């Protein structure tokens, strides 16, 4: 063997070793099963859990990326769900994390005012609504209440608040936004300003947030929990202003989609299942590169119109990264296993690519590394 050939072989070996290791370190031994599981956020029953609990099976076997907590079980019509007291919630979240090899998003809808899962009757601080804060439009007031909320969540081990609502209050009679005082204002600049203060206070304490409901639910006349809501004639482009401003300041951790139908954006599908709305408008036009999370895929607007397989297929193709099955419109103990199996089948059939799954996995893990994973 000539001296030149030996040099070439040595260089080739070094090159492959260096770059091979770099490639392996980027995604060391992560199975497709785990990547799929990280895309699922699941609601469950239980104020305490153990190794036999279905949600533990979801964490251990299905590798789910997150859970969502509720104080009331709608399908069972009972207040026994996940929340009894501060001490109990703290133990529950700690136990949940103990079963996870990748830290979970432990999420909750703690907007304040009428929409809160942590209620004074269970020993939690009183909160105020977004509408109240928007009417004051005072930085100190919003910081004060957001700080208190962030501290409560931090102490409980809840790391993800599915808030703030950045819907513009175009229709004050809207039964699911305006009537519940969930919007800061009918002025999109005030909405953006207040939301940014809220987000910064939560982020300071390691709580990530989710803007909702993209591309705007503030003008609707109906409730998408119950069925299809069409905002084609009432939606206004100014509803995008809060998203643009918050994304420009790099303050959007997650963005939650709305189950609203808007022919101005897509004549076929509601926003959660709409590629023109998510991949087109939100990602390409507005420039959001973070995690897109669906609203609950078991809500009437989706469940009554699309089968589970079609819902999962369309939402992933549209650009959704985390699929939420809150189990609080209907309850299905096996929903995580079903969803995981369907995604696997869609990949096997070539309908969804592994590359598409990896995109979502990388976005999710990027957010977890920022807030939840302590690097040594």
User: So how many helices?
Assistant: 13
Tell me, what's the shape? globular
Q: Span from first to last CA? A: 45 Å
How many strands, what sense, and barrel or not for the largest sheet? 8 strands, parallel
Question: Which key features would you list for this structure?
Answer:
376 residues, alpha/beta, 8-stranded parallel sheet, two-stranded parallel sheet, 13 helices, 10 strands, 42% helix, 9% strand, globular
What does this structure look like?
The protein is α/β, with parallel strands linked by helices and 376 residues long. Helix content is 42%, strand content 9%. The protein is built from 13 helices and 10 strands. The strands form 2 sheets. An 8-stranded parallel β-sheet has the order 9-7-5-4-3-2-1-10. It has a two-stranded parallel ribbon with strand order 6-8. Helix 7 packs parallel to helix 8 (241-248) and helix 9 (275-285) packs parallel to helix 11. The radius of gyration is 22 Å and the shape is globular. The N and C termini lie far apart (45 Å).
Short description:
The chain has 376 residues and is of the alpha/beta class.
Please specify the SSE layout and strand pairing.
Blueprint: H1 3-26, H2 32-38, E1 40-43, H3 54-60, E2 66-69, H4 86-98, E3 105-108, H5 130-136, H6 139-156, E4 160-161, H7 188-204, E5 208-214, E6 229-230, H8 241-248, E7 254-257, E8 260-261, H9 275-285, E9 291-293, H10 300-303, H11 308-318, E10 323-325, H12 335-348, H13 354-371
Parallel strand pairs: 1-2, 1-10, 2-3, 3-4, 4-5, 5-7, 6-8, 7-9
């Amino acid at each position: 063997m000539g001296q030149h050939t030996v040099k070439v072989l040595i260089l080739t070996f070094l090159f492959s070793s260096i770059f091979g290791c770099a490639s392996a370190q980027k995604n060391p031994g992560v199975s497709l099963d785990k990547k799929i599981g990280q895309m699922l956020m699941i609601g469950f029953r239980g104020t305490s859990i153990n190794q036999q609990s279905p949600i533990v099976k979801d964490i251990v076997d299905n590798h789910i990326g997150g859970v969502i907590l509720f104080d009331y079980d709608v399908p069972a019509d009972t207040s026994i769900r996940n929340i009894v007291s501060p001490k109990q919630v703290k133990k529950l979240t700690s136990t949940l994390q103990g079963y996870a090899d990748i830290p979970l998003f432990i999420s909750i809808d703690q907007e304040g005012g009428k929409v809160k899962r942590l209620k004074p009757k269970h020993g939690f601080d009183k909160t105020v609504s977004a509408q109240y804060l928007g009417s004051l439009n005072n930085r100190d007031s919003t910081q004060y209440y957001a700080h208190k909320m962030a501290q409560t969540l931090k102490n409980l081990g809840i790391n993800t608040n599915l808030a703030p609502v950045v819907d513009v209050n175009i229709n004050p009679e809207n039964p699911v936004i305006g009537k519940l005082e969930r919007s800061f204002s009918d002025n999109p600049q005030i909405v953006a300003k207040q939301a940014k203060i809220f987000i910064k206070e939560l982020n300071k304490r390691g709580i990530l947030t989710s803007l909702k409901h993209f591309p705007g639910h503030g003008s609707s006349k109906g409730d998408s929990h119950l069925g299809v809501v069409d905002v084609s004639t009432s939606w206004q482009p100014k509803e995008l202003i809060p998203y643009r401003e918050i994304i420009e300041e790099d303050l959007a951790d997650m963005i939650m989609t709305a189950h609203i139908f808007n022919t101005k954006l897509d004549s076929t599908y509601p926003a959660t299942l709409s590629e023109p709305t998510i991949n087109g408008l939100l990602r390409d036009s507005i420039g959001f590169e973070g995690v897109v999370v669906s609203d609950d895929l078991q809500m009437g607007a989706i469940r009554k119109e699309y089968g589970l397989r079609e819902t999962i297929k369309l939402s992933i193709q549209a650009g959704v990264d985390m699929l939420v099955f809150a189990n609080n419109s209907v309850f299905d103990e096996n929903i995580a296993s079903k969803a995981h199996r369907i995604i696997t089948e869609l990949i096997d059939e070539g309908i969804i690519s592994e590359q598409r799954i990896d995109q979502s996995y990388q976005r999710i893990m990027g957010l977890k590394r920022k807030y939840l994973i302590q690097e040594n």
